[in-house]
Amino acid sequence: MRRPEGSAGSTEALSAGLAVAGVTATAVVGPMLGLSPWLIAIGAGSAFAALTLDAARFGGMGGHLLAEALPGGRARLRRIAIHEAGHLLLAAENNLPVKQVLVGSLACLRQGLAANGSTELEPPAHAKLPPEDLRRWSRVLLAGMAAEVLIYGSSRGGVDDRALLGRLWGLSGFDAATAQQEQRRARREVEQWLRDQRALLEARAEALLEEAPRLLAAPRLLGQTP
């Protein structure tokens, strides 16, 4: 069961907004700097062509790929790694098998996902789960957001996690009030556990970060230390 982080729709909107802003700024400032209107027109056409190619070829993820490749990209990837490390650690603590963890847009695109990060869990055997299994899933699915809050003070990812968790409780026949109460309880438990294990969380995130591929980054040789 994949639970990807990120939204291709929001990425496309961001890329389009940046492209329009860039073209508008160039059109205003360009003549003042002596740029030819032809050069501005060519530049605008190239920008929108790149945006169209990004949407068609990469599902609008090109902006994220570029951002992760730039010098500040490591900090961006570290936040994703913190989120996924939270899922990974709580999955181990709650005996939920993890099939694969991906950090970064490039790693996700290679697996056919339009996302920034993903933790793939073994799906439950049945759609209707008993309360204790639902509590375990609650702790694991809420761990990514809790990890981000612990390290950064807020969470950016987690929309898919909350949606999946709501479906699991709903399919198991529990009303919304009960599901929300149980999820609040799970969130408190996860937050306390991560506070106690903060060093482990950051170490696991660092390991995931070192494995995350980036555009234009030279591949590390086997046995090479970072």
Quick synopsis:
The protein is built from nine helices and three strands; from the N terminus they run E-H-H-H-H-E-H-E-H-H-H-H. By secondary structure, it is mainly alpha-helical. The radius of gyration is 21 Å and the shape is globular.
Structure characterization notes:
By secondary structure, this protein is mostly helical. The chain has a single domain (1-217), classed as Up-down Bundle (Methane Monooxygenase Hydroxylase, Chain G, domain 1). Helix content is 66%, strand content 7%. The protein has 9 helices and 3 strands; from the N terminus they run βααααβαβαααα. A 3-stranded antiparallel sheet has the order 1-3-2. The longest helix is centred in the N-terminal third of the chain and has 22 residues, at 8-29. Residues 6-21, 43-56 and 221-226 have low confidence and may be disordered.
- The number of distinct structural domains comes to 1
Q: Assess the beta-strand content as a share of residues.
A: 5-15%
Helix content: 55-70%
Give helix and strand order, one letter per element, not per position.
EHHHHEHEHHHH
Average of the residue pLDDT scores: 80
**Strand order across the largest sheet:** 1-3-2
Output the CATH topology.
Methane Monooxygenase Hydroxylase, Chain G, domain 1
**Gross morphology:** globular
Question: Low-confidence runs (pLDDT<50, min 5 residues)?
Answer: 6-21, 43-56, 221-226
**Tell me about the biggest sheet?**
3 strands, antiparallel
Named CATH architecture: Up-down Bundle
CATH class: Mainly Alpha
Q: How many whole angstroms does the radius of gyration measure? A: 21 Å
- The termini sit apart by 32 Å
Number of strand elements: 3
Backbone structural class: mainly alpha
